[in-house]
Amino acid sequence: MKTAMRAKDSARLDVLRGIISEVTNAAKTSNPVTTDAQMASILRKKIKASQSALEEFKEANRTDLLERETKQKAFLQELLPNQMDKEAVVATIHGVLGNLRVQGENASQGTVMKALLGPGGALEREILDTSEVARLVKGLI
After folding, report:
1. Distance (Å, rounded) from C-alpha 78 to C-alpha 57?
2. pTM over 0.70
3. Helix (H), strand (E) counts: the chain
4. What is the pLDDT confidence band of residue 1, given thresholds at 50, 70 and 90?
5. Residue 137 CA to its chain's centroid (Å)
6. Helix axis angle, 63-79 relative to 36-59, nearest 10°?
7. Measured between alpha carbons, how far is 99 from 94 in angstroms, rounded to an integer?
8. Taking Cα atoms as reference points, which of 87, 92, 88 lies closest to residue 116?
9. 121: phi > 0 → left, psi -120 to 50 → alpha, else beta; which?
10. pLDDT of 56-69, one tens digit each?
11. What is the spatial distance between Cα 90 and Cα 59, in angstroms, rounded to a whole number?
């Protein structure tokens, strides 16, 4: 943050202040940010908001705001940790599906998601978009 302040990089500074604000607000709730996955979720949410702002600025022909928001989105994407690639996630889902079928359990979407993301799950500690995992699971069942 000091580096952004010294460089007078307002886009980075605004992003960092926004993230600090989100984490601080979450700390005051019953679900504070304690894992990398929760932090990645906050970053993905901010990227999605930035994307919608970019679209609105394009429609309003606001090039000044468009340029600034583009810089902020690029910085947010730099902060987002690397996620597992899609092929590795699909391979893990196939493995879990195979294990469930061997055990004779019903391979419903909820059961597979619990086996993947629940406590002790195959993808429990991984940083990934759970909605994308759910979509992949639904397609493979």
Report:
1. 22
2. no
3. 7, 0
4. confident
5. 18
6. 160
7. 9
8. 92
9. beta
10. 999 999 988 999 99
11. 37
